[in-house]
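Run: sequence + copper (II) ion -> complex structure.
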Amino acid sequence: MQAIGLFAAALIAALGLGGGSAWAAFGHPVDWQLGLQDAASPVMEDIVWFHDYLLLGIITAIAAFVLALLIIVMIRFNARSNPTPSRTTHNTAVEIAWTVVPVVILIFIAVPSFKLLFKQLDLPPADLTIKATGNQWFWSYTYPDNGNFEFNSILVPDDKLKPGQPRLLTVDNELVVPVNKNVRVQTIGADVIHSFAVPSFGIKIDSVPGRLNETWFKATREGVYYGQCSELCGRDHAFIPIAVRVVSEQQFNDWLADAKKKYAAVPTTTRVAATGH
Ligand SMILES: [Cu+2]
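>> structure
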């Protein structure tokens, strides 16, 4: 019995049903990970609940029910145990039931699903706005509330990584935001369609040339959270990661003071040319 209990616990942990605590320290995928990345925003917490508990529970119950029906049919109605089959072709009560029950299940799923959708799309009053511009092939970030300074965020190649920095996700200049603040993200494409996505925050929004798209997140834990461009944008699509550093308000203000000086000094276009992209 104990072995079964241990196995069940391991399975639950592996499926990410245990609240994802095993990966709590990471804002990026890890080896052998199953399930969703650990949540670091209220929207992502709801997504994890919706997927890992509600949907997975309903799917498991439906699959178990269908499997049980199949087993009953195979045992009780095979040619040996039931040599003279019934000629019945219709049963109104059963037909109504198997139409109505799935509809009821879908309505039951739709209620929390729409609630979550509205939470994602209905932007709360923002404490900070950042603008993410997708370029071939890097992101540039603008802080319109804070003097509109802008900087580029470029992939750090494998041979320049420091210990602990994740490969293909680390960038030279991270997007920096304060913890527990509503951050409005405005995004646009400078050349083709890109997509700004950070799994731990539960955001993914297309960056379309000529159209400003908006989303929001509230990071609830300090740390670095990674994402990638999620719209096939050309040759180096796999090499334009997104790294968001979430810091305390004090650290954010210190960073802002430095960044305003640092990034005001160099026009963006000059830095683009210097990277060779
Ligand atoms: Cu891309």
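>> summary
Residues 42-76 form the longest helix (35 residues). Residues 194, 229, 231-233, 237, 240 surround copper (II) ion (CB under 6 Å).
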